[in-house]
Amino acid sequence: DAGITQSPRYKITETGRQVTLMCHQTWSHSYMFWYRQDLGHGLRLIYYSAAADITDKGEVPDGYVVSRSKTENFPLTLESATRSQTSVYFCASSVDTSYEQYFGPGTRLTVT
Amino acid sequence: QQQVKQSPQSLIVQKGGIPIINCAYENTAFDYFPWYQQFPGKGPALLIAIRPDVSEKKEGRFTISFNKSAKQFSLHIMDSQPGDSATYFCAALNAGNNRKLIWGLGTSLGVNP
Questions:
Q1: Probe site for chain A from B100, B107, B108 (most A CB atoms < 10 A)
Q2: Distant-in-sequence, close-in-space partners of B15: CB < 8 Å, separation ≥ 6
Q3: How many C-beta atoms lie closer than 10 Å to residue A66's C-beta?
Q4: Which three-class secondary structure state does DSSP give residue A82?
């Protein structure tokens, strides 16, 4: 039972490059979320999705793009990475009948 | 602006002590208040949650106290253990707002042996 996985776990990229962070869940949860975690800022919601093909902006969406063609996958793309996007990114999912969010292990992204 | 204010930022207690972490909110439409626990290198995990229709909820050594009139809620950890050393986040949600959790900034808890 894999649960929710993220890949890669660590990524170093250069300013201006496009990078995609992957999130996969095996539970068929309807809701999925992308957060970034930075010291002093806690967890900030980037995008979320209520179902396949339904996405909406969170608190800090600028510079990010998401898609959700399949229920189990929710990739996050940084179109042109900037140093301010250096962070730890967490994906989470939630079933319809509960507000509990299940988090993945995170991706540590460094933009040089 | 921060809608959920969490304090203290960090806390150290001795084993067996009772650390208390506090959160305050402004939006009276919030109707779900969870606490998440995060260990280094891991994602947060739900610890305990409460709805505003009850004033207290216990799960094992963890208790949430909720004061609706003061718009405050707190986490108490009874008989704290070194394994409880982690970062704790409070959050709040308005069920009519698409599952968007509003997070506190976190409290780093250390429990000395």
A1: B100
A2: B80, B81, B82, B111, B112, B113
A3: 21
A4: coil
- What span, in angstroms and rounded, lies between the C-alpha atoms of B56 and B46? 17
Q: Give tens-digit pLDDT for B17-58.
A: 999 999 999 999 999 999 999 999 999 999 999 999 999 999
* Tokens linked to B65: 């106290």
Distances (CA, A) of B98 to A33, A55, A62: 11, 11, 20
E strands in chain B:
4-7, 10-14, 20-25, 33-38, 45-50, 56-59, 62-67, 72-77, 86-93, 101-103, 107-112
Beta carbons of B103 and A43 less than 8 Å apart: yes
